[in-house]
Design a protein that fits this description.
The protein is mostly helical. Among the domains are: 1-115, Serine Threonine Protein Phosphatase 5, Tetratricopeptide repeat, CATH 1.25.40; 379-437, no CATH class. It has 18 helices and no strands. Helix 1 packs parallel to helix 3, helix 6 packs antiparallel against helix 7 (143-156) and helix 13 (291-301) packs antiparallel against helix 14.
Length: 437
């Protein structure tokens, strides 16, 4: 970026008489402009990569335009015989972009001509030498080198009619050269090389129908070749049991060749196997009551399934089971706490009765056992109360509220141990809660 900025300052200094160049945008302003065009938030890694590539391309475009402007000024110095300044500007361009071929050509020409006592004559001699070299290459059949050298002659001497004529002839021969080279590469099944040669020919003759036909054919074959390579790689992964890698390979094959029926059929089979694998793993985890992990496996199956409702049903069933078990755990915890409270209350009552009995025994001069001994038989009052608790428990039992029914019948049993109905009822509840009928 620093080199780019220095080059811009330098070109501005030497182009004082030229039209003012448009201001160069910074990377920050480019970022804002790209957001305005709908790039949006860059959340995904792929989006960020594309954005950085776009910024890089924009920087290259800006650099290319600036270097072209500098080259125009350098060439203007060259035409005016100011070879020293032309050389300096050409060297500046090459320090920024070493592949700028026209700057290299201008640097060589300026070095050759600077310091000449008769610049005009020296330039004519240099142009003639290059012209003869180009023709020499052409005579030897070195078409590419001849064309490149004659291009230099035309660029350095734009009004050279003779050079333009030969350049036109060489262009036609160069097109044929690239076409033949492309045909040879195609016969050797070097499809990429063939395509490169055909495109080089097309740059010379952009509307040549035969070239376009060949390029279309080779691109189709190259796509098929790439698809076949990806398909072969995917089959190897499939044979090794690497289903996810096989899936990615098949997707890549179909991206290159969307209509490949073999890849499409195999992709469906691989998707089915991947889906079944995740479903089976989830069911196994479900069987050992690892419901969260089971749901995770079933979620992984979603991208590969053709029956999303089935996956969702499995997940819903696992969540319902988790809720049922959670509710049951909470119920048992509450029941244990209730029984603990009742046991504590019972012990407190027993302790209170014992203390009262001790006091009563001391007052009456009796033993504690004699005082606490229950009178024989059940009083009428206790029998009626027992029957009342039995009826209350029966209502709860009929409404399937077995816990409440058991509480009522337990009290009834304590009030009247001889009440056979309460004994039978309590036994029935124990059978139901134990899973019996």
């Amino acid at each position: 970026m620093t080199k780019l900025f220095l080059a811009f300052i330098f070109s501005a200094a030497v182009c004082a008489q030229a039209a003012p160049a448009k201001p160069v945008k910074s990377e920050e302003s480019l970022f804002l402009d790209l957001q305005k065009t709908g790039l949006g938030a860059l959340n995904e890694l792929d989006e960020k990569r594309k954005f950085l590539e776009t910024v890089k391309l924009e920087k290259q475009k800006i650099q290319g335009k600036m270097l072209d402007a500098i080259y125009e000024n350098a060439f203007e110095y060259y035409k005016n015989g100011n070879y020293e300044d032309a050389k300096d500007l050409a060297a500046k361009i090459l320090s920024i972009d070493p592949n700028y071929e026209d700057a290299q050509m201008l640097l060589e020409a300026s070095n050759q001509l600077r310091g000449s006592a008769r610049p005009g004559m020296s330039e004519k001699i240099m142009i003639e030498d290059r012209f003869k070299t180009a023709l020499g290459y052409y005579t030897e059949g070195r078409i590419v080198e001849a064309h490149a050298k004659m291009q230099e002659v035309v660029k350095l001497s734009p009004n050279n009619i003779k050079a333009k004529y030969w350049l036109t002839r060489m262009k036609e021969d160069l097109k044929e050269y690239y076409f033949e080279a492309g045909s040879d590469a195609y016969r050797q099944r070097d499809l990429k090389g063939a395509l490169d040669h055909f495109y080089n020919a097309l740059l010379i003759r952009p509307r040549d129908g035969l070239l376009i036909e060949w390029i279309t054919r080779v691109e189709d074959e190259l796509r098929q070749q790439k698809a076949n390579d990806k398909l072969k790689e995917a089959l190897e992964y499939y044979a090794q049991g690497k289903l996810l890698a096989a899936y990615r390979g098949l997707k890549g094959a179909l991206e290159v060749q969307p209509g490949d029926s073999k890849a499409g059929k195999l992709l469906n089979e691989v998707k089915s196997e991947i889906e079944n694998g995740f479903i089976a793993a989830g069911k196994k985890l479900y069987g050992v009551r690892k419901y969260t992990e089971a749901i995770g496996e079933w979620d992984k199956a979603k991208p590969y399934t053709g029956n999303m409702s089935y996956i969702n049903k499995l997940i819903a069933r696992a969540r319902q089971q988790m809720k049922r078990e959670s509710d049951e755990k909470r119920r048992k915890s509450e029941e244990a706490a209730r029984r603990a409270r009742e046991e504590e209350e019972r012990r407190a009552k027993e302790e209170e009765a014992r203390l009262k009995a001790e006091a009563e025994a001391k007052r009456k001069g009796m033993t504690v056992t004699e005082v606490m001994k229950k009178p024989a038989g059940v009083s009428t009052e206790n029998r009626l109360a027992s029957q009342q608790h039995y009826l209350e428990g029966l209502k709860y039992f009929q409404n399937s509220n077995y816990e409440k029914a058991r509480d009522e019948w337990t009290i009834a049993r304590q009030l009247d141990p001889e009440n056979s109905d309460t004994a039978a009822g309590l036994k029935r509840i124990e059978q139901i809660l134990a899973g019996g009928q």
